Amino acid sequence: MSVISIKKNYLNKIKLIKKYNKYYYDKSSPIISDEKYDQLKREIIDIEKKYPNLKNKESPLLNVGFKPSKNFKKIKHKVPMLSLSNAFDEEDLKNFEKKIFSFLSLKRNTEIEYSTEPKIDGISASLTYKKGIFVTGLSRGDGIEGEDITENLKTIRDIPKKINSKDFPAEIDIRGEVFISKSDFKRINEKFANPRNAASGSLRQKNPEETKKIPLRFIAYTFGNIANNNIKTQSDFLSSLKNWGFKTSQYNKTIKGTKNLEIHHKKFEKKRYNLDYDIDGLVYKVNKLDLQNRLGFVANAPRWAVAHKFSANSSTSKILNIDIQVGRTGALTPVAKIEPVNIGGVVVSNATLHNEDEIGRKDIRIGDTVKVERAGDVIPYVVSVDKTKRVTNSEKYIFPKKCPSCGSKTVKDFNELTKKYDAVRRCSNENFKCEKIAMECLKHFASKEALNIDGFGKKIVEKFWELKLIKLPQDIFSLDYKKIEQLDGWGKLSVLNLKHAIEKSKKISLDKFIYALGIRHIGQENAKLIAQHLKNIENFYKLSKSNDKENLSNIDGIGVTQVESIKTFFSNKINLNILEKLKNKMEISDAISLKKDGILKNKTFMFTGKLNEISRAEAKSLVEQNSGKIISNVNNKLNYLVVGDKPTKSKIKKAKELNVKILKQSEWIKMLNKTS
Question: The domain at 3-54 falls in which architecture?
């Protein structure tokens, strides 16, 4: 086939996939099967690999999933809509409860009561009511802000437009799940791939009249922002929801202890397929709301709730090859390229092998017939090998001891806590000296969750890297736009749009800036915690030159692992140079304090000794929730030393020498209550 013919064939395929995307994403009405769509996508990618110069801006590699709709304005949630941590087995469940016991400092014979409910596979929504009137409806979005889909939500019969109950709060956010039943879906399944797509597509319609045509349902299960909350338990709130006219699950139940939760889970899993809607597990919430408040949140999930997932869907396939992917932190991740197989309605062609140890333990080889599982949104993974189907000349897979990107030696870190080597093998090259690590860092820096540079996606980063237009993050702000304008697929307008997006990205919040740096173990939520603690960018820069990094461990949610990662980051000269350059090119806003005028404002605390009926973690959390600060050493900056049972005598002695106020635990609690 001639080059002209290949190009023509390629562009025709691009045109087709663009058409299919329009029907799938914009209209939520796919016109081909998932299998045929994936096959077309693979054909396009194969052509691009052989002929990279043909790559078009409409390539599926440059357009992952679909962009958030611009048809709806974004509104910030008054209380974030966070996700839930997952439990997949009995051990996970026990660990979940163990953490609760530890945080609350509960006695072993205590039995925690949980409110349980089915985890419906739908679309989360938050409904704001003021004086009983439904005024605003938002999607989950990114958890911080959601899309305003009020008019579409108003078409759902299950959502009351006005509530006259005397006990209904003056203002409240009712949260729940929008879904479509299996029986209703059967009547309209010619338009949608599955029930969840039907719900999602309907809520994203421009015209509410189109949404109205779809028999959407709504089940309420919790609240966000609420005025004058006198409700004591989750189960009481569910009863109130029912009295107010909201639909709730008929399978809501209160259960004590993880043993009984496990029994309930096994029974419910057997009847999940008999339900008229899709569920992928059960949700457990600590029933008492005062305990929920005490437990609070860690990272992006509450400490007081967990999603207990059902068993995974699985199938068998054949490993065609094993690729090694190099991540942003240098981690080498093996990925099995498998013969495409349908698992739970999704065509899977890649499955993670996790790490070198996992390959060795399971003795996974190229050509093996394997069992592949997919649980919910979890990445498909290889469970086991059917060795009865292995060919006789099969060879063991040898994990690369050199980085496939830069050729540097690969290493395994020694964990001082476990006294074992990590399972993950990493490239030993410094950040930005390994091409793959550098590119992944740059992709992360420009990503939606970080700088959010529109039109500066992963493939653009790779292209600009190849052309030596960028090497380090600061290079993004000094691009040669004249050179870019000459590139295939670029013009004055597209270059102007890119320039505008980059200029816009220079203004960024402190937490997003910290996250954008790609520090290992510092995700979005940890970055927010650190930003809240440091307040401004100057303090972050000072941190790079000081020896006070250990103080970060006083932040509730930041542990030894995160502190060590920050130390490692600041010990790298390249990183310090990047920080210095970015300082002069960006405008980084101060962290917005969640509670500026709390009852412990401008007061510093330190705890010593064992506290009664409260853990050290919860005590620190209470101080920070009320605008106080925790410091790790007895010094002139310390206002109060709170002593429990068997305190450290040297700390008390030093506190007396510095005239630091020494409080008993009871006195500290009185301080909280007195000023509240």
Answer: Orthogonal Bundle (1.10)
Q: How far is CA 102 from CA 95, 107, 418, 561, in A?
A: 10, 9, 21, 19
Residue with tokens 């970015």: 582
Residue-wise pLDDT tens digits, 92-136: 899 999 999 999 988 888 899 999 999 998 899 999 999 999 999
Q: Can you tell me whether residue 303 is helix, strand or coil?
A: coil
Which segments within 480-576 are labelled E, that is strand? Answer: 507-509
The pLDDT value recorded for residue 369 is: 95
Q: Rg (Cα) of the chain, in Å, rounded?
A: 27
| Three-class SS state of 507 | strand
Which SS3 state, helix, strand or coil, does residue 641 take? strand
| Residues 178, 195: Cα–Cα separation, whole Å | 11
Active site residue 119: yes
CATH class, range 74-309 = alpha beta
- The whole-model pTM stands at 0.57
Which strand (E) or helix (H) includes residue 356? Answer: helix 356-362
Can you tell me whether residue 220 is helix, strand or coil?
A: strand
**Left, alpha or beta for 468 (phi > 0: left; psi -120 to 50: alpha)?**
left
The helix or strand, by DSSP H or E, that contains position 347, with its residue range, turns out to be strand 346-352
Query: Yes or no: is domain 435-589 CATH 3.30.70.20?
Result: no
Topology of the domain comprising 604-675: Rossmann fold (3.40.50)
Catalytic residue among 13, 55, 119, 443: 119
Q: What does residue 32 show for φ and ψ, rounded to 5 degrees?
A: -135, 165
Class of domain 312-424: mainly beta
Ordered by start, the domain boundaries in the chain are 3-54, 74-309, 312-424, 435-589, 604-675
The rounded distance, in Å, linking the Cα atoms of 75 and 78 is 9
